[in-house]
Amino acid sequence: MLDPAGGANALIFLLIAAAGLAMALVYVPLRLYLTITARSRRLRLLLRIRKLREDLGQSLVAP
Q1: d(CA 38, CA 44)
Q2: Rounded Cα–Cα distance for residues 44 and 42 (Å)
Q3: CA distance 49 to 45
Q4: Phi and psi dihedrals of 18, rounded to 5?
C-alpha cells in the first residue's frame, strides 16, 4: 500500500524536477543568445581596431 508520506515525497520530487526543467529551458537559450551576441560584438570591435590600424598605417606612410 502507498502511505501518504510516500505520495507527498513523490509530489515534492516532481515539483522540484519540474522547476529544474523550467530553469534549464530558460537558461540554455538565454546563455546561447548571450554567448552569440558577445562573440559578434567582440568580432566587430576587433575588425574596427584592425581597420583603424590600417588607416593609421596608411596615413603615416602616405605623406
Answers
A1: 10
A2: 5
A3: 6
A4: -65, -40
> How far apart, in whole angstroms, are the C-alpha atoms of residue 39 and residue 31?
12
- DSSP class of residue 2 equals -
DSSP 28: H
Residue that has been written with the C-alpha cell 510516500 in this structure: 6
Instruction: Name the CA dihedral angle for 32, 36, 37, 38, rounded to a multiple of 10 degrees.
Output: 100
Instruction: Going residue by residue through the chain, which has 63 residues, state the pLDDT in tens, using 9 for 90 and above.
Output: 456 678 889 999 999 999 999 999 999 999 999 999 999 999 999 999 999 999 998 877 655
